[in-house]
Specification:
alpha+beta; Translation Initiation Factor IF3; 2 helices; 29% helix; 35% strand
């Protein structure tokens, strides 16, 4: 399954918190596309993924818009 999360115009730490909340509803192998505009998310979301065992598959920048593709795992690091 692929889910999209709109976290645009939210400032730190909200994009990470919303990502965490969305991942709770997904299964291993699912992908979450996080759309955001906070430049801190480029570092914060991958750090959160690394700590929690998820995989960042892509980070795409388009002007102010940032899309981070997270693949959900079973959380085993």
């Amino acid at each position: 399954m692929k889910l999209e999360l709109d976290a645009r115009h939210l400032l730190c730490p909200l994009p990470v918190i919303r990502t965490q909340d969305a991942v709770k509803h997904l299964q291993a192998g699912d992908k979450l596309l996080v759309h955001c505009t906070d430049p801190g998310a480029i570092h914060d979301i991958p750090t959160w993924c690394r700590i929690n065992g998820h995989i960042v598959r892509d980070i795409h920048l388009d002007g102010r818009d940032i899309t981070i593709t997270v693949e959900v795992t079973d959380g085993v690091v």
